[in-house]
Design brief:
Chains A, B: It catalyses: RX + glutathione = an S-substituted glutathione + a halide anion + H(+). The structure is a homodimer of 223-residue chains. Chain A is of the alpha+beta class. Chain A has helices spanning 14-25, 42-47, 67-77, 89-115, 119-139, 153-172, 183-194, 196-199, 205-221, and strands spanning 5-9, 31-34, 56-59, 62-65. Chain A starts with a strand and ends with a helix. The interface between A and B is medium-sized, with 22 and 22 residues.
Chain lengths: 223, 223
Amino acid sequence: MADEVKIYRNWSSPYGLRIVWALDIKGIEYENIFEDLSQKSPQLLQYNPVHKKIPVLVHKGKPICESLVILEYIDETWKETTPLLPKDPYEKAMARFWAKFVDDKLLPSVWSVFTEKGYEAKKEALVPAMQNLEFIEEQLKGKKFFGGENIGYVDLALGWIAYLLDVFEEVLNLKLFDADKFPLLSGWMKNFCDAPAIKQHLPPRDKLVTKFQLFHEKFQTAN
Amino acid sequence: MADEVKIYRNWSSPYGLRIVWALDIKGIEYENIFEDLSQKSPQLLQYNPVHKKIPVLVHKGKPICESLVILEYIDETWKETTPLLPKDPYEKAMARFWAKFVDDKLLPSVWSVFTEKGYEAKKEALVPAMQNLEFIEEQLKGKKFFGGENIGYVDLALGWIAYLLDVFEEVLNLKLFDADKFPLLSGWMKNFCDAPAIKQHLPPRDKLVTKFQLFHEKFQTAN
């Protein structure tokens, strides 16, 4: 039943996209509920009173919050179709480790390049961000996706890199990513964005550029 | 075989204690390897090159890092004995959500009370910390432990509260926790610390007070 699964998200957030990507990979029907984050709905606040954030997955009326927690829930609830996480406990632990690394280390380090004020500060912030990308590049050795032959949990966690890095480059007018230095990640980005379940949900690039230009102006002029 | 499982930790870190508690609850033999964090061993740096941190669990020569990832690994590898996480996918998602909340929100909010300079700043930092504790109190309604009748994943994640809050109170000379306001959490603390698998690993209180007094002086005098 289509009305069994609802996903509260907005059009651009990579955390929300992780969930729709996963649902589409697994062929699960769902309803999109788009939130205006400047005026959150009473439903969203009721479903996620702790963080008051998207995404929230509502399954048979029960809410689940936090995108990585939702991905595991989806994988465990609809386990007959395309697995997202490996079965082996050690491989599973490695997937969890790298997804956590993406959220706790990689994403904040790239975001700080975006938010730092001025060229010099941004160049400095690039150093740890690139070191973090090197760890990720290393993980792709001998594999098409982090999940092996198919898109899995770590791929979905890292999905934002594939469609946002080059938007950031345009907005910042700064080279963030050198495909020659990261050949595996560069190939992964193409494969990831070309996959039908991913491609159909990628936000329009021009809208992203406009959104992040406004964001960037705000950060550059803030005290 | 005892030499199959090694845990790299130090004597006081709650992240390391989560692991030895879990191993003892499950009756798994292991070897403790105590690290001097001011001079980390080459083994630790080799096993955790990304974060260079304890705890690391080494099982049959393979390292696993990040305490919550390790707990899930332990539960999935030794699944015959005392489960740490619920079987039901929704209940499991709730346990993951609250453990993540403990690490991402509760712990940093309590820690900021510790690190803020001066009485007024500390009192202000107490407000979000207490709000976070209220969320946790709510979760204990009708339950002895977060895991139900037995200690589980969320209990282990929250374990630091049970033995550190009153050490912080002594060091800061500030009331952090009012048992009348948090009757369920207060009862939980007692039950948790009384459990044999937990009690035998609790660090000596006087050593903790000395350690955190030194820490606190450092924070209060830092620029």
